[in-house]
UniProtKB/TrEMBL annotation:
CDD domains named among the record's database cross-references: BPL (cd16442)
Alphabetical list of SUPFAM superfamilies matching this protein: C-terminal domain of transcriptional repressors (SSF50037), Class II aaRS and biotin synthetases (SSF55681)
Documented EC number(s): 6.3.4.15
Protein name: biotin--[biotin carboxyl-carrier protein] ligase
Keyword Hydrolase annotated: no
InterPro entries: aa-tRNA-synth_II/BPL/LPL, Biotin_CoA_COase_ligase, BPL_C, BPL_LPL_catalytic, Transcriptional_repressor_C
A Pfam family annotated for this UniProt entry: BPL_C
Occurrences of domain BPL/LPL catalytic (ranges): 7-194
Broad EC category: ligase
Any one GO molecular-function label of the UniProt entry: biotin--[biotin carboxyl-carrier protein] ligase activity
Keyword Ligase annotated: yes
Length: 264
């Protein structure tokens, strides 16, 4: 295992003012948890924390994110988008999903997005995003990306198995290079989103998301946070990231958050 080169990352990303601060730690429970605490004590906008491994990595709906040393990229970014209304910050996870597909394009890996923010290659899950709101108008954006095969990992919802960049012929599996590219792509996408006050359409991101989203046009079941489920055809994503579903009777409804399973 080649360790992440923190000095190189700081030179490429902090010295050039894309980010305010960047640290790499050998091990932590969760980079999101650490940055949430840092946000409460005044850490700067565009602060990055990357871990070689996480011992208590968390995905959406409090699921465990397997984070073995050296096998992936586990990072969180603290953002303070004062220009974005609180009700629009939910679309930030979609911004991160686009940055991940940008990265995959750079690496020669054909990836798609499963709404709202899972990155798939074929029928395998390559990466996930977890955005958590923090008091004082901050968001901690966590990204987990599998670089090397994880071995025997329990499949996610809908039977999605974990997959990795290495399994799909990525141009490089150098995690330092991957981290630098991903963070640059994220900075580009996030700045456009911030200038547009969180409106994906005005930021020029909505059309890109619709094109990258493999959920659209599929029959899906969505498990909602309240325990309800909805089944229908996913027909659109709007400017704040909500998914529109049309049932067999032609009735449409929008979903802001939920767990999607692609049925066919």
């Amino acid at each position: 295992m080649t360790a992440l080169d923190a000095d190189r990352l700081r030179t490429e990303l902090v010295t050039l003012q894309a980010y305010a601060a960047l640290d790499v730690v050998a091990s932590t429970g969760s980079t999101n948890t650490d940055l949430i605490e840092a946000a409460r004590t005044g850490a700067a906008d565009y602060t990055v924390l990357i871990a070689e491994e996480q011992t208590a990595g968390v995905g959406r709906l409090a699921r465990t994110w397997v984070s073995p040393a050296g096998a992936g990229l586990y990072l969180s970014v603290l953002l303070r988008p004062a220009e974005v209304p609180p009700e629009a910050t939910g679309s930030l996870a979609i911004v991160a999903g686009l940055a991940l597909t940008d990265l995959c394009d750079d690496l020669g890996v054909a990836a798609t997005l499963k709404w709202p923010n899972d990155v798939l290659v074929g029928n395998g899950k390559l990466a996930g995003v977890l955005a958590e709101l923090v008091p004082q108008r901050a968001v901690v954006l966590g990204i987990g990306l599998n670089v090397q095969p994880l071995g025997d990992v329990e499949p996610g919802p809908g039977g999605l198995a974990a997959t990795s960049l290495a399994e799909h012929g990525a141009r490089t599996t150098d995690r330092t290079e991957i981290a630098a590219t991903l963070l640059r792509r994220l900075a580009e996408r996030e700045r456009a989103w911030r200038v547009a006050h969180g409106d994906l359409a005005k930021a020029g991101l909505l059309a890109d998301y619709r094109e990258a989203c493999g959920t659209l046009g599929r029959t899906v079941t969505v498990s909602l946070p309240q325990g309800e489920t909805r089944t229908g055809t996913a027909v659109d994503v709007d400017a704040v990231g909500r998914l529109t579903i049309e049932d067999d009777n032609g009735q449409r409804s929008t979903v802001l958050a939920g767990d999607v399973i692609h049925l066919r």
